[in-house]
Amino acid sequence: MFDKILVAYDEGSIAAKALETAIGLAKLSSGEIYIASAYLYDDNPSRFDSLARLQSEAAARVAAEGIAAHRKMEAGTRSLGKVIAKIAEDNAIDIVVMGTNNRGMVGRFMFGSVSDYLLRNLTCPSLIVK
Fold first, then answer.
1. Per residue in 88-125, pLDDT tens?
2. Domain spanning 4-129: which superfamily?
3. Which tops the pLDDT comparison, 25 or 108?
4. Cα(40)–Cα(11) distance, rounded to whole angstroms?
5. 107-112 contact pairs (CB < 8 A, 24+)
6. Which of 26, 77, 100, 130 could form a disulfide with 31 if both were Cys (CB 3.0 to 4.6 A apart)?
7. In Å, how far are 78, 89, 105, 128 from 16, measured between CA atoms?
8. Where do the structural domains in the chain lie, given as residue ranges?
9. 15 against 107, higher pLDDT
10. List of residues 6+ apart from 81 with CB closer than 8 A
């Protein structure tokens, strides 16, 4: 059913919950997990290092469950959602699992929302974790 599961992964605690949900889905469907992170070209270089470390830890967690893990990290110019959507499309992902912060309407308007963008633009199913 879900052979290729992408989890949108960052520093947030919600991302850790999304990873656990993706692991559960992968176990049910004998799928593999793509751990995807995005950053902006003009981000502080330490952000890349932080994401790389987090991805490594997440991949180890996935592998400990006997599930194949693939790490994907790409940069974008403005929209992290577009970067994650492109990773999903390029890898023929079956479902995207992601967290949401529940910022509210004003927060989404001012700061944008990766999960909102993905819900509107992905061509595959998505699962939101709170």
1. 999 999 999 998 876 555 444 434 588 888 989 999 99
2. HUPs (3.40.50.620)
3. 25
4. 15
5. 112/79, 112/81
6. 26
7. 24, 23, 24, 13
8. 4-129
9. 15
10. 112, 113, 114, 115, 116, 117, 118, 121
